[in-house]
Amino acid sequence: MSAPRIFCIGRNYAAHVRELGHAEDGECVVFMKPASSLVAADAPLVLPRGRGAVHFEAEMTVRIGTAGRDIDEGSAHRHIDAVGLGIDLTLRDLQTTLRERGAPWEACKAFDGSAPLGPWQPRPDGDLQALRFSCTVNGELRQEGDTGHMLFPVARILRILSETWTLLPGDIVFTGTPAGVGPLVAGDVIALEGDGLGRAEWHCV
Predict the structure, then answer these.
(1) Assigned domain for 38 exists
(2) Is 1 a member of any domain?
(3) pTM of the full predicted structure?
(4) How many domains does the chain have?
(5) What CATH number is associated with residue 125?
(6) By the 8 A CB rule, do 127 and 150 touch?
(7) Of 54, 57, 99, 160, whose CA is between 20 and 30 Å from 92?
């Protein structure tokens, strides 16, 4: 798997912001992951060892099909050619340490294998802010997402990103996670499923 760039949006669901104890300051948090972070569905999900808790964060993803700069929110959907589901894996203990130091997040968010990505689905004709998705671990429901609850809708995300970067075909955007994040350990099976977003599953090793 590969992509020109992988953009990630943090703190995009109010309940998740609250569960991690962050301030609801209204700012859009943007970070990036390298192509080496991608893990295809059904491939083994290799968890980092000896680096503290590894948390899952289930997210709707979108893929850019048409390049754009300073994208208008009203036409943003035309730049998307596919949607799907993915996981933003986070080294939570390390993230806490980095945040306390005011340091960048790359070490806790952008490590190899930190972005499991499900199969792409054609962009639906309907509203991207009216889709539901879920995450289970070992068959137990852990997260339920409703894109209508995003603090920053997809169109606004693309506008914000394209103010700084020209979005390119193949770029991927992880749009943020709802509440319910938690740890993964070797032997776990994590699965994602959503309306028009497909299904994906990974076995953790």
Answers:
(1) yes
(2) no
(3) 0.94
(4) 1
(5) 3.90.850.10
(6) no
(7) 160
Sequence-ordered list of residues with C-beta below 8 angstroms from that of 158, at least 6 positions apart, any chain: 68, 71, 73, 76, 79, 80, 167, 173
Sign of CA dihedral 54, 145, 2, 75: negative
> Angle at Cα 113 formed by Cα 192 and Cα 55, nearest 5°?
60
Per DSSP, helices labelled H in 57-192 are 92-101, 106-109, 154-162
Beta carbons within 8 Å of 139's beta carbon, 6+ residues apart: 189
**Tokens 């943003």 identify what position?**
76
DSSP 92-110: HHHHHHHHHHT--SHHHHS
pLDDT digits (tens, 9 = 90+) for 123-134: 998 899 999 999
Tell me: the pLDDT tens digits for 24-64? 667 789 999 999 999 999 999 999 999 999 999 999 999 99
- 16 DSSP 8-state letter: H
Domain that holds residue 151: 6-203
d(CA 84, CA 62): 6
